[in-house]
Amino acid sequence: MKTPKNKNSIRDSVGFTQEELAMLLGVTRSMLAKFELGLGSLC
Fold first, then answer.
1. Average pLDDT over residues 23-39
2. Which of 1, 3, 19, 31 is surrounded by the fewest CB atoms within 10 Å?
3. Average pLDDT for residues 13-41, to the nearest whole number?
4. Mind giving me the DSSP string for the chain?
5. Span 1-17, pLDDT tens digits
């Protein structure tokens, strides 16, 4: 059984939704999703 790559992500640990964390960081949800998958940066 595979586990999600972001199982121990900071977002999950603090209980933020992807939308809330993206807003706090000043990035789009798409940018955050790509970052969580290791496919992009937040800069």
1. 93
2. 1
3. 93
4. ----TTTT-HHHHHT--HHHHHHHHT--HHHHHHHHTTS----
5. 444 555 667 788 889 99
Cβ-contact 33, 18 below 8 angstroms? yes
CA dihedral 10, 12, 18, 20 (to 10 degrees): -80
Instruction: For residue 26, give both structure tokens.
Output: 């000043």
Domain range summary for the chain, segments of one domain joined by + = 1-43
What value does the mean pLDDT take over residues 22-33? 94
Amino acid at site 32:
L
Q: Buried b / exposed e across 9-35, counting CB within 10 Å, b at 16+? A: eeeeeeebeeeebbeeeebeeebbeeb
